[in-house]
Amino acid sequence: MHTNYAVVTGAGKGIGKAIALTLANSGYTVIACSRTQSDLEQLQQDNANIIPFAADLATTQGVEALGAFY
Fold this sequence. Notes:
globular
């Protein structure tokens, strides 16, 4: 069985959160990115298909960390 993955930035709140949950509820494994760890922890509690990743993707460090993460 092939697993579908999605990376959603801004997943802690608003539209990003809604997109992450919609994809996770549709069977995707979602790497949810946000600067706020507590928002991501709540999101992961809402759906087990969520993999939280806290970083600021507006920085080179954040992007490099995401690349090394998965």
